[in-house]
């Protein structure tokens, strides 16, 4: 019987993933509480909310782009390392 079952490997532990999501949700709630209790007109609150949502979404996008570029660089280096070894 062949036991070549591939196990999925995660880069982060479940505890780190939980901590990441918990801190993200915690600080989003803090922003919303701060905006709710802010003694300014609705227009100012909306401006701060737009800025916060934009900052959060651009942070996700930036982290994905950085990770993708790093993985592409590793794949590129690995590909040419294999080609260099084949030529030698």
What are the main properties of this structure?
mainly alpha, 2 helices, 88 residues, elongated, 80% helix
Total count of strands: 0
Radius of gyration: 22 Å
Which oligomerization state do the chains in this entry correspond to?
single chain
Strand content: under 5%
Structural class: mainly alpha
Mean pLDDT: 89
Helix % is: over 70%
Shape: elongated
Unreliable spans? none
Q: What is the H/E string?
A: HH
Main sheet? none
Q: Could you tell me how far the N terminus lies from the C terminus, measured between alpha carbons in angstroms? A: 39 Å
How many structural domains? 1
Number of helices: 2
Kindly describe this structure.
- With about 90 residues, this protein is mostly helical.
- It has one domain.
- It has two helices and no strands.
- It is elongated and about 70 Å long.
Structure described in brief:
The protein has helices at residues 14-37, 42-87.
Question: How are the elements arranged and paired?
Answer:
Blueprint: H1 14-37, H2 42-87
Helix pairs in contact: 1-2
């Amino acid at each position: 019987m062949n036991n070549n079952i591939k196990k999925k490997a995660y880069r982060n532990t479940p505890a780190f993933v939980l901590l990441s999501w918990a801190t993200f949700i915690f600080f989003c709630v803090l922003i919303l509480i701060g905006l709710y209790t802010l003694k300014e007109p609705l227009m100012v609150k909306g401006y701060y909310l737009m800025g916060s949502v934009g900052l959060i979404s651009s942070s996700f996008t930036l982290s994905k782009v950085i990770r993708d570029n790093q993985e592409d660089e590793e794949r590129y280096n690995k590909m040419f390392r294999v080609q260099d070894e084949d030529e030698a």
